[in-house]
């Protein structure tokens, strides 16, 4: 099968188009005919070696954890799906080797959810990792009806999902972004504030008694977070491990089929939209990585693998 591989850590230039063996389907696994793969910052950080202290890797490796496709084979003891099902997954495994930037990928069945009918292949590929990150950080912080939430990085890939999910959970949402992105935040249901110097004062103007929950998807905002957090408030970050020293939660997303199914239902009931900024063909995966690294897109970057 055709796949994007790399044989040493480095920048996107190390990625190359290769012919590799079709992966075997182990017990509890499903092999997908991949239609599209989402691009996330963790993908190019892994390629650069940033997760080498945490995860084993087998070279040559195929990058990518977000995937959408059609079930083409099921392993032993798999009853949840059948051949021909259209599914999506945050297909992270315990080691780095076989990813989603390939014509076929195997994933644990415990990571799978149905593809939302309302999304095309490219939109569905953009949802799992970022959507799960947003959903799990919000629910772990107890966001519910009547909660006031501050979202740092509300226009980003994770933040834009967090705004919509928090609104769907019944929360009031304040979101930080640059001023040109404020209209987009309003369309997602947030009250926008400009990030940077004076942020805490601007948030206090909207929420004089402070906010109940802060979720940080950018890092470098702990001081502002603590300044606006109400007594008994809760905060979490995916970008700043030091939050634990201030009573916060530092977290990393987990594959979870049930959570992903909740997101699929939110999409199909019109509570959650998925914006794709640009789709690249598989052969241009390196360019897709560079576009994601640039960080100035409103919407997700995806790789189109097959029709």
UniProtKB/TrEMBL annotation:
It holds the Pfam family ADH_zinc_N_2. It comes from the Bacteria. Residues 10-303 form the Enoyl reductase (ER) domain. This is NADP-dependent oxidoreductase. It comes from Brachybacterium kimchii. The lineage of its organism: Bacteria, Bacillati, Actinomycetota, Actinomycetes, Micrococcales.
